[in-house]
Prior knowledge:
Layout lengths: L1 H19 L6 E10 L2 E5 L2 E5 L2 E13 L2 E18 L4 E21 L5 E16 L7 E15 L4 E12 L6 E3 L6 E3 L8 E12 L2
Antiparallel strand pairs: 1-4, 1-12, 2-3, 3-5, 4-5, 5-6, 6-7, 7-8, 8-9, 9-12, 10-11
Amino acid sequence: MRKFKKQLLIVIALVAFSFQGFAQGAVEITGFGGYTFKNTFAIYGGEATVGDGGTYGGSLAVEVRDGFDIEFYYSRQESTLSAFSVFDNVNFREPGNVSYWMLGGTRNFQALNPNMYFFTTLRLGGVTFSTKDNTPDNVTKFAASFGGGLKYFINDQMGIKLTGNMLFPIFDAGASLWFGSGGGGVGVSTWSPILQFNFNGGVFFRIAR
């Protein structure tokens, strides 16, 4: 899993640097906090849950052309991970974290108010489910997300951003999901059984180039 995570981070970094050369406008840095809702999904012989919890993170957006940005996104959710299966003899519940790191494109649309913009974002990257004691049973998978929201400029250099996201950890057919210091295998028979909804708000700073 560590090798997978390093490879994914390297790919994201290379793509990020490749877009730097095409950047035409400003750089926008955002820090945010919010809340991610609980998701329960069926597994073989039972069900698993990724609990709700507070979420925080940040993003870096580089304007590559008018109205379009390349965004680098990171978020971390404090959560509870649990699963129960009568067939796989799994029964655990542990505190943990869900961390996303992604690269995506953002399209901005100016509202009637010249200080307000609406936006939509599509991202691809990875997600890590980890327990509090950082045991070897943590798991890293590919992930995707779709989001949107609005941002309001207080002045030319800063503003407020409100965002809603749908987050999709991606599991291939026949893969397994593992959590916990004692270990627990949860069979997954369908694509992306987890769908997380997240809402957050934050402050952004815009640096003209």
